[in-house]
Amino acid sequence: MKIEGAVCIITGSSSGIGAATARVLAGLGARVVLAARRVERLEALAAELPGSLAVETDVTILEQLERLVTRAVDEYGRVDVLVNNAGQGLHVPLEELDPADLRAVFELNVIAPLLGMQTVLPIMRSQSSGSIVNVSSATSLRVFPGLGGYSATKAALNMVSQVGRIELAGSGVTVSVVYPSVTATEFHDRLRAGHIVSGARNIPRDPPELVADSIAFAIATGEAHVLVGDPPRPIIPGDSEGWGSLLARQAPGAQAP
Ligand SMILES: NC(=O)c1ccc[n+]([C@@H]2O[C@H](COP(=O)([O-])OP(=O)(O)OC[C@H]3O[C@@H](n4cnc5c(N)ncnc54)[C@H](OP(=O)(O)O)[C@@H]3O)[C@@H](O)[C@H]2O)c1
């Protein structure tokens, strides 16, 4: 997918990886549609990015997702890219995991991206082109004590993405998954519950721009799985070198699945 001129919806673009992605894609000539709940932040970012649009959106509410996509189509006449980036952490041991927290994080990290896909797909199918990028987590690829709830949501997102990719084969729409490692954003201070796991405190945090570049790479190439790095790296399940390089950067206590 050519990024220049593309209409790109980015959820969770009021901070962190989403805001960095908006800047990177706009810098490559995309028309970006910014979506999150903190509308004042979206409007401040939109003021920096000519030709962009800010739409206050809670992605867990279907009517708001539909309104977001309608606003994008009304403004630009098409939707080329959906970056499902909005998400939240939940870092507690399983014995202490409150089911209400787990349900809420599943709503945000799994159901909302799925609804986002369902909402843009009729448009992308009618265009015979589109790129959906789901922002997962490196934590979904290994077994981390204390991250069972969060990693389960991202593992579910991986499966939704992979099945979606196959179901859409031949439609002109690609579905990609990007796997950030520990990244320097507000994420760690805005967990639904719990604390950053002790081993991960010592891992150098990637700048969100590195993840943004990897998301741009996923859009441009349509690769199924993209490991964040400089340069970003396409990986295939079973590629022990790819997973190995990921594991090398992980927290002590991580186990192979
Ligand atoms: N930081 C890391 O170490 C790391 C590592 C791996 C994966 N990730 C993933 O990367 C993605 C982005 O996280 P980040 O690190 O950039 O954290 P962040 O700075 O906390 O950003 C999270 C974004 O999600 C938005 N959001 C949360 N709930 C929402 C809702 N109901 N509706 C709409 N937007 C919502 C927030 O905006 P509002 O609050 O304004 O709505 C915010 O813009 C997440 O999916 C996260 O799981 C992060």
Summary of the model, kept short:
With 257 residues, this protein is an alpha/beta fold. The protein has helices at 16-27, 39-48, 62-76, 99-127, 148-167, 208-221, 240-247, and strands at residues 7-11, 31-36, 53-56, 81-84, 130-135, 173-179, 225-227, 233-234. It starts with 6 loop residues before the first strand and ends in a 10-residue tail after the last helix.
CATH H-level superfamily title: NAD(P)-binding Rossmann-like Domain
Bound molecules: NADP nicotinamide-adenine-dinucleotide phosphate
Integer tally of domains: 1
Strand order of the largest sheet: 3-2-1-4-5-6-7-8
Indicate the CATH class. Answer: Alpha Beta
End-to-end span in angstroms? 33 Å
**Count the strands?**
8
Classify the helix fraction into a percent range.
Answer: 40-55%
CATH topology (level 3) name: Rossmann fold
In terms of per-residue confidence, which ranges show pLDDT below 50 for 5 or more consecutive residues? none
As a percent range, the share of strand residues is: 5-15%
The ordered string of helix (H) and strand (E) elements is EHEHEHEHEHEHEEH
The profile of the biggest β sheet is:
8 strands, mixed
Q: What structural class do helix, strand and pairing data support?
A: alpha/beta
**How big is the Rg?**
17 Å
Number of helices: 7
Gross morphology is globular
Q: What would you say the CATH architecture is?
A: 3-Layer(aba) Sandwich
Give the integer mean of the pLDDT values: 93
